[in-house]
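Q: what sequence does this backbone want?
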């Protein structure tokens, strides 16, 4: 392979962004200059969503207005409800999320308007409606009645309410909110780059987010949080963990929830999420997954010097909260819509068609033989 090829665009800087950065001086992921863990400690998810989309943290009045807009858009059309009811029950909810955003694009009167103001209005609609659509599928596939959103609830509370019909205690809601903050944005990752690439042809925001969801589904990206849970379920109990992980490494298996393209000595989001995973485990009086977590992590660091990424603690946290495993990545979606949208808006503001080159290694020039001579 030619040395000029940067497979996977590894180490290639393709554009500028003002949305987020892993700052080496504080060893942390930052959104618009604020450390993600600082935001977790001091803000609720809606404030961080506002920050990512608008560049500054909101004051009280701005937050109230933002929340009002989001709550106003917490409805989905009858046509979308009907479509969700007809989706095969075994469909992966990530495909449901992709389809729901696609249908919202068919219904949105401003789909083709890429002006900054129209894009922001569309963002609010996608941001508010996607959790409603996902929760509707959560219920219908179990044969349960859809639960309508409640305006008096926060973004996170409302998601629990729509999925389970009740809001858990405030510490569980806070842990969920923290996970949304940590998942909200991460610069030029695969799904964001997909969204920016789609946007670069001057396509629309619904299309870009639909593509980003498809990209996030993969197990090397957002799908890892589900794979972590599958792994923990295979391990079953803490007594099996040491043997299981050593065997996986002996077999040269990729261990989900570990490693990262950007962080090579630890994902800065992990300590915060690990802390909240512990809190949820304590509330749920279930220490099993924490024990498995610690053993697998220790062996991965000792044998491979590979550290966990944020999907490692979110997987078992969502499980303890009661979510079905295949809903873990869709939860990632409802948060990352903010980051994707900010990138789509940024791409529109200084667009250049994304069109890299490839080194050709196919056949030399040849002539076409007529069908009867082949
Ligand atoms: C995220 C990921 C795709 C990053 O990949 P990358 O930057 O291309 O790095 P590589 O896959 O080339 O990994 C470098 C080395 O570490 C090893 N490695 C990386 N992650 C590993 C993991 N999770 N388990 C076991 N080995 C791993 C690779 O096998 C490779 O070893 P080698 O040099 O002996 O071939 C990769 O770490 C991975 O597949 N992780 C599991 C999936 C996951 O958790 N994804 C969520 C990311 S937030």
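A:
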């Amino acid at each position: 392979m030619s040395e000029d090829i940067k497979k996977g665009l590894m180490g290639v800087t393709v554009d500028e962004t003002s949305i987020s950065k892993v700052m080496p001086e504080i060893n942390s992921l930052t959104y618009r200059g604020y450390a993600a863990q600082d935001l977790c400690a001091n803000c609720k998810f809606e404030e961080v969503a506002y920050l990512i989309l608008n560049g500054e943290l909101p004051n009280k009045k701005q937050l109230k207005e933002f929340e009002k807009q989001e709550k106003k858009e917490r409805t989905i059309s009858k046509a979308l409800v009907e479509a969700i009811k007809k989706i095969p029950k075994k469909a992966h909810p990530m495909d449901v999320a992709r389809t729901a955003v696609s249908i919202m694009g068919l219904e949105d009167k401003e789909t083709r308007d890429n002006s900054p103001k129209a894009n922001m209005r569309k963002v609010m609609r996608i941001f508010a409606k996607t959790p409603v659509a996902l929760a509707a599928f959560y219920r219908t596939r179990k044969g349960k009645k859809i639960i309508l959103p409640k305006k008096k609830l926060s973004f996170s509370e409302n998601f629990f309410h729509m999925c389970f019909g009740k809001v858990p205690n405030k510490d569980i809601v806070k842990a969920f909110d923290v996970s949304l903050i940590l998942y909200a944005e991460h610069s030029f990752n695969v799904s964001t780059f997909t969204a920016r690439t789609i946007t670069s042809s001057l396509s629309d925001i619904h299309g870009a987010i639909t593509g980003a969801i498809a990209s996030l589904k993969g197990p090397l990206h957002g799908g890892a949080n589900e794979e972590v849970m599958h792994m923990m379920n295979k391990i079953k109990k803490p007594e099996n963990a040491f043997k299981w992980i050593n065997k996986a490494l002996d077999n040269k298996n990729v261990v989900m929830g570990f490693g990262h393209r950007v962080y090579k000595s630890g994902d800065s989001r992990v300590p915060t999420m690990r802390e909240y995973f512990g809190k949820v485990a304590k509330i749920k009086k279930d220490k099993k997954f924490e024990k498995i977590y610690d053993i697998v992590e220790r062996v991965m660091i000792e044998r491979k010097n590979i550290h966990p990424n944020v999907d490692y603690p979110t997987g078992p946290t969502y499980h303890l909260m009661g979510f079905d495993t295949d809903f873990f990545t869709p939860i990632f979606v409802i948060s990352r819509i903010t980051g994707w949208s900010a990138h789509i808006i940024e791409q529109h503001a200084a667009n250049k068609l994304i069109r890299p080159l490839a080194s050709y290694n196919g056949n030399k020039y040849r002539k076409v033989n007529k069908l009867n001579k082949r």
